[in-house]
Design a protein that fits this description.
Layout (H helix, E strand, L loop, with lengths): L1 E7 L3 E8 L2 E10 L3 H9 L7 E6 L3 H15 L4 E2 L5 E2 L2 E2 L10 H12 L5 E6 L2 E7 L5 E8 L1 H11 L19 H26 L6 E5 L3 H5 L7 E2 L3 H8 L6
Parallel strand pairs: 1-4, 4-5, 8-11, 11-12
Antiparallel strand pairs: 1-2, 2-3, 6-7, 8-9, 9-10
Helix pairs in contact: 3-7
């Protein structure tokens, strides 16, 4: 069965086509401020999906717009994924599994489907999440810290006179102007923090964990890491393709 898979985040929507439990190609991403662009892409698909499934951790207005467009143009009601205590071969460690975003659970499912367990999974989005999973699919727990966009927004709110930093792929460690100094702090600081957290996660495990980076800023941050990691930018959607989960 062909299907359209959707990941509605805090600032953008990612989507990909899938069939037989596997994604096809690379995901595309469109900001919530450009719903017309998103729907133009879907309207240009050569063949219509038979099913639409998604995960939503933000973008309430975006979710409503997606539901209307899909119903109006394809006659399909999207199925939104909830987080189960046990599903997709993953047993969550949270006391209340509903508190853990479905995107984090699906990233673990994706890691399992891609044969990367045991793993330390870092999802680099508006928020950065880190989760440890053992070889049996048992979640060891996780943490949440601000992502690059959240860092910039937070700093702008308390120090509005500072310039906006351009987060480039080649930002020097020590810089000679304020704009570059901010970029260095965001990029090198976040990368060094992630290195320490990943190494701590690996050290506390009795198994040899595979460090996995996913999410919108994964490729950028990986350039600043001084360690080997596996890049899987679309891991959440890979997990969604692999599992037919409880819906809401």
């Amino acid at each position: 069965m062909s299907e359209l898979l959707i990941d509605v985040g805090n600032s953008r929507t990612k989507w990909i086509l899938a069939e037989g439990g596997h994604v096809r190609g690379a995901a595309r991403a469109v900001g919530h401020d450009n719903p017309t662009g998103l729907f133009e892409e879907w309207g240009g698909l050569r063949s219509l999906p038979q099913r639409v499934r998604g995960v939503r951790v933000g973008g309430g207005e975006a979710v409503a717009a997606i539901e209307r467009w899909v119903a109006d143009h394809w006659g399909i009601t999207p199925r939104w994924i909830d987080t189960p205590a046990l599903g997709g071969g993953i047993r969550l460690a949270y006391d209340d599994p509903a508190q853990l975003g479905a995107d984090r659970w699906l990233a673990m499912v994706g890691a399992r489907a891609a044969n990367y367990l045991p793993a330390c999974i870092v999802d680099c989005g508006s928020a950065i999440t880190l989760d440890g999973v053992d070889s049996q699919g048992r979640h060891q727990g996780g943490m949440i810290l601000p992502g690059l966009a959240a860092q910039q927004a937070g700093l702008a709110s308390v120090a509005p006179s500072l310039p906006t930093a351009e987060l480039a792929t080649k930002t020097p460690f020590l810089t000679r102007n304020t704009r570059d100094a901010l970029a260095s702090g965001h990029l090198h600081g976040t990368a060094m923090a992630l290195q320490g957290l990943i190494r701590r996660c690996m050290a506390e495990s009795a198994e040899r964990l595979t460090p996995l980076l996913t999410g919108g800023d994964a490729t950028l941050l990986a350039r600043y890491l001084d360690m080997d990691v596996r890049l899987r930018p679309d891991l959440v959607l890979e997990g969604l393709a692999a599992v037919d989960a409880p819906t809401g």
